[in-house]
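Field reference: sequence -> structure
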Amino acid sequence: MPRLRLDRLKAALVGAPLPTSAHAEERLSNGEALAILSSDALSSVAYATQEIVLVLGMAGAAGLGFTLPITGLIVALMVIVAISYRQTIKAYPHGGGSYRVSHENLGDIPGLVAGASLSIDYVLTVAVSTAAGIAALTSYFPSLDTIRVPLCLAAVVVLMVANLRGVRSSAQILSAPTYVFMAAVFTLLVAGGVKVMAGELTPITAVQQNLLMGEEHGGQLMAVGGVLLMRAFSSGCAALTGIEAISDSVMAFQPTEWKNARRVLTVMVLLLATMFGGISLLTHHLGRVYQENGPTLLYQLGQQVFGNGSLLLVLQLSTLLILLLAANTAYADFPRLANFLAQDGYLPRQLTSLGDRLVFSNGILALSGFAGLLLVVFGGSVTRLIPLYAVGVFLSFSLSQAGMVVHWWKERGRGWLGKALVNGFGASVTVVVTGVLLYSKFTQGAWLVVLAIPLLVSLFLTIKEHYRQVAKRLRLAADKKLSLPPAPAQGGAPVVVLVGQLHRGSFEAVRYARSIAKELVAVHVDLGLGKAEAFRQQWQRQLPEIPLVVLDSPYRSLIDPVLDFVRQFEIEHKKDRDKFCTVVLPVFVTRHRWENLLHNQSTIALRSALRAQGTRVVTTVGFYL
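Structure field:
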């Protein structure tokens, strides 16, 4: 059967289904958490200085002289944001993502803006990290540059399949790329510093810098001005992406969770500032420049300090691995954010469902699709993707910190004013930075984010309104006993009616089933959401005369338990060959085709599976929304 072949292919690709009982929260030691949760932030040093140098190089040697001051400003910004998030972690020990903090303290619209910003940020995290990782690979193997985009897409597919499998490799294995990368970068900085002081490394002169940059920009160099410096600062702000990851994942830590999370955040920022500042300092002393589509700046530094030996290979491979690990963090965060938004009614409810491997499969597929599209459109170029990246990050920073100010004001506990001032200062700084990012990067691609955020918010509100209207149409009086038509005098054929919830749609299906059959059984599948007992009690109050069978589904499948039940039901009633068993399925009929995307289309799949199994009569009862 086609369905059986499809199931076998799916099992081969993502693995056999796992029971809901296997779902457990993984707790990380501080060392493991530093490596896994900080990979997004720490990996940004692979391209942050490079993007600053690329912009400043438009003004030649005069512009490159501002590399260190801009780096210093960004490091100061890191410290401000980190101090603000330390407070968020303590206030929200169960996880203080920007969406939750903004939604609870500022209201629906600011929360949705934060949710939209974060959604875009997670998609860009996958795209930028993958592109930067492949750039590290093509710098060492230049012949691969011609297939950069296919390599990026292949990396996204590998990440997608790995996350769909939901295989939790040991934290020690996942930690390795981060620690190897940190060791390689610190070795580069120490060895480079020693060789610079010993005079063993020849820097590129200002004249050579001007010649190289002149060739890169068509023979003309810009004057150093405010716009150029703001653009360089904006590009370097990519170094702050990922700082919020620890506040999103406080419950991943061992007890006491919030204390350990704050410790790891502090260590992460110290490491990030040291590596970022060190790379900028070494770049400045050696006079290195970066040309778009050329070897990465980190590769150039490694080649000059290490030569072409094994240390350079270790640096490049560890860079590739930590960037892929950074992309992988978005595969944990985006589906979880989509789940929160869907639970609140702002995204399709299919995004709340755990897949066969206890992961939010639909969120993983959506993230992969959007990231792959960006990589194709922007040619897998880090430089072209960066202008889109930081705007959403800093907007969510700003909303989160503003939400914390309101949080402290509402609580007014001990020392609340000082805490509010810290978050208020953080919010003020990140708002200013957001404005700088928009001004300096608007024409380079940031306008896409400015357009996308309100469109996403509008989409969220449209979906919410649709679900509100549907709930209004379907609502039944919760405790009122429902009346049914009399059963047919002749008894009719035995009927099975599937009910997921008791509302007007499913009640119409039960009424129809009663009108054609005296022998009627309702079937409800318990998908492990903890709602089966409440449904059973509601059924006993409102439809006590109709027997209800609740089927357990440890693997969260709707189809398999129903197929097994119907097969057994048909065997039991096979003696009466003149009367075929009938299966009645309630189904929503929407006004617009796009609304079908907001509802689980399980009825279609179940109807096909029943017919493939050989069930003679399958009837759908439509309820028009």
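Note: Strands lie at 495-498, 520-526, 548-552, 582-589, 617-624.
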